[in-house]
Amino acid sequence: MALEHYISDLLYRYNCVVVPGFGAFLTQKTSAKINPDTNTFYAPTKLLAFNGQLTSNDGLLASYISEADKISFETALTYIEEHVKNWNRILGNEGSLVIKKIGVLNKNNEGSLLFQPASEINYLTSSFGLSNFSSLPITREILKEEVEELEESIPLVISTERRENKGFRPYLKYAAVLFLAFSTGLTAYKVFEKQRTNEQVARANAREYVDKQIQEATFFDLSPLELPTVTVDATSTKLPSEKDGEMHHIIAGAFRIKANADRKIKELKAKGYNSTYYGTNAYGLHVVTYESFSNATEALNALKEIKRAQSKDAWLLSKK
Question: What's residue 187's pLDDT?
Fold first, then answer.
């Protein structure tokens, strides 16, 4: 099998295929384009180029030949060397080398190789089945211009209306007016109903989207605060906030699914917090805490630090 066949197979999958001792064939992806002069549409493709300075063996071509023909790697290298010698001999004698499915190499007066890639093959696999095509330009006729031309060529003569008393039915005029008003109102009603239906559908879609997106929620008690009357005992050393048996919990969040709450607890414990499962709230959500304190001052200091370092949504729940 000819060497260019193996090179062509590899160009579909790789951007660079090196032929040891000869040069490298390179590909670069380009997007679709249109030629405005010929109205030709070109599909996305890989531009093919040749670099005669990349001659070092990277093993890709020899490995592919060895695997495809079930021969040794050394035999594949020998096969490549023979083809390269033949290519160089053709270039030296004829000055031009045609490589099927790849392109044409020509040697100029200075001894440099000029490469003209083949256009019949698209090595971009994502463009398989897409071919170039030409289309006639679209000509658009403007109706307004035609009407203006007709108005200029055909003069309009307005004559006075003649009314004959015989057989004249004035009620038809009023019936036409009423019918026009009714049809206008019906059209406006249909437009209004369609707009209202679209708004309802949009709201339903928005609610469904929000329900799907919300996986975690933190709820706050928004009921008005009742300020109890505090009596301070001058002989006591406790602060009013340090009530016997009262615990202060820093809330991390409330979850609809218990597994999410357990995962949050595991995550916070990994960060060094003594996170616990508090239970379910009035909304049926599973509540998770960062820490719990019996001292209100310590709880407030910890809450301040958590808000700064972890989450601004953390809040304090004090309960006996």
Answer: 74
Domain boundaries, the chain: 3-134, 247-319
Regarding the domain delimited by 247-319, which CATH topology (the fold level of the hierarchy) does it fall under? Alpha-Beta Plaits (3.30.70)
How do residues 77-96 score in pLDDT, each as one tens digit?
A: 999 999 899 998 988 888 88
Cα distances from 30 to residues 26, 34, 59, 164, 211, in angstroms, run 13, 12, 27, 77, 43
pTM beyond 0.90: the answer is no
Q: Which has the closest alpha carbon to 56: 11, 15, 21, 87?
A: 21
Q: Are strands 33-35 and 40-42 parallel, antiparallel or unpaired?
A: antiparallel
* 3-class DSSP string for the chain: CCHHHHHHHHHCCCCEEEECCCEEEEEEEECCEEECCCCEEECCEEEEEEECCCCCCCCHHHHHHHHHHCCCHHHHHHHHHHHHHHHHHHHHHHCEEEECCCEEEEECCCCCEEEEECCCCCCCHHHCCCCCEECCCCCCCCHHHHHHHHHHHCCCCCCCCCCCCCCCCCHHHHHHHHHHHHHHHHHHHHHHHHHHHHHHHHHHHHHHHHHHHCCEECCCCCCCCCCCCCCCCCCCCCCCCCCCCCEEEEEEEEECCHHHHHHHHHHHHHCCCCCEEEEECCCCCEEEEEEEECCHHHHHHHHHHHHHHCCCCCEEEEEC
Which pLDDT band, with edges at 50, 70 and 90, does 19 fall under? very high
Residue length of the chain: 320
